[in-house]
């Protein structure tokens, strides 16, 4: 497909667009979906799958498939809106709502960015320290976390989208192979696995079954980072409705991989001793140690393989957030809108936000991240019902009517279900933050 190049773009942006258009092969088609999968699966998601597996066993594997389907529908709706209207989803919301909505969402995004930035730096530090120790564990976690953040800034600043996309493909390949191989080495009961995938059931689990089911469902495929898909498809030259089929293919591939990650982690959690008091990267590194002692064969191999896979998961998430979130924030600032959306060339605001994102959250590293993790979980849970609600109400706007954007009956039904399920989860998460 020959993509359209905006004549008003600066020369560097034109070159990037032409390079994207000339690219062929699987990375051209599946690239944005791979980026969604690699960014959306981090230490929290892997740990959440392991904890759910330990508590609910493989009877809830169907939940992973449902979660991936719901996230697919949300991202597909974002792509349909953007390709139909040539505006970002957030700009469409801001156009049809009072100005205060923009500022409230920017404040929300600032809180989320600080919390997720601190979590990702800490997670990278924890996983890297487990592979290459530097001094005491707490000191090594801080050093590794800062080094990973600096490395991500340099890669994003100097390597451009071409290098970013390929690094993410390597990381997700490492994650994919690791989780699946280690899950198979754990020797699960495959008949139970098949039942868990095909027969919906929610265990009671001392009254925690429903809460853990919703948490597992929401943890499949990220939250706020799904908005970044809009920028990534523009980088691939997908500018109009003719590109919707390619978006549906790469999203299906990306969320299929995401679902397989989740299934693998639930299986591992059901087979290994899991300490529910641990969270995030702490739990992931403990799982690697447990593999060496608990798996019947290849325990040492599986443990080290899982350490590298976990590192790939958290570093790809950090790299994806560092590359994409500054662009989201820059586009959402007042006065930017379509002018910023039409240019692929990052401006000064982008780099200022990138530096802030890569440095300020480091203030969290010396301290316990328990409250930061909880706040990040709440902000992420709040985003999902907002996303679904936006896609449900946008068809009624003038821009949607002019462009022909609408939701089919199936999409609308799934969006309503998504709004209800994740709305309940958001209320539950808020109650834990403000008891």
TrEMBL record:
<feature type="transmembrane region" description="Helical">
    <location>
        <begin position="167"/>
        <end position="190"/>
    </location>
</feature>
<feature type="transmembrane region" description="Helical">
    <location>
        <begin position="142"/>
        <end position="160"/>
    </location>
</feature>
<feature type="transmembrane region" description="Helical">
    <location>
        <begin position="100"/>
        <end position="122"/>
    </location>
</feature>
<dbReference type="GO" id="GO:0016020">
    <property type="term" value="C:membrane"/>
</dbReference>
<keyword id="KW-0812">Transmembrane</keyword>
<feature type="transmembrane region" description="Helical">
    <location>
        <begin position="251"/>
        <end position="269"/>
    </location>
</feature>
<dbReference type="Pfam" id="PF01566">
    <property type="entry name" value="Nramp"/>
</dbReference>
<keyword id="KW-1133">Transmembrane helix</keyword>
<feature type="transmembrane region" description="Helical">
    <location>
        <begin position="210"/>
        <end position="230"/>
    </location>
</feature>
<feature type="transmembrane region" description="Helical">
    <location>
        <begin position="308"/>
        <end position="329"/>
    </location>
</feature>
<protein>
    <submittedName>
        <fullName>Manganese transport protein</fullName>
    </submittedName>
</protein>
<dbReference type="InterPro" id="IPR001046">
    <property type="entry name" value="NRAMP_fam"/>
</dbReference>
<feature type="transmembrane region" description="Helical">
    <location>
        <begin position="412"/>
        <end position="431"/>
    </location>
</feature>
<feature type="transmembrane region" description="Helical">
    <location>
        <begin position="381"/>
        <end position="400"/>
    </location>
</feature>
<keyword id="KW-0472">Membrane</keyword>
<dbReference type="GO" id="GO:0046873">
    <property type="term" value="F:metal ion transmembrane transporter activity"/>
</dbReference>
<feature type="transmembrane region" description="Helical">
    <location>
        <begin position="350"/>
        <end position="369"/>
    </location>
</feature>
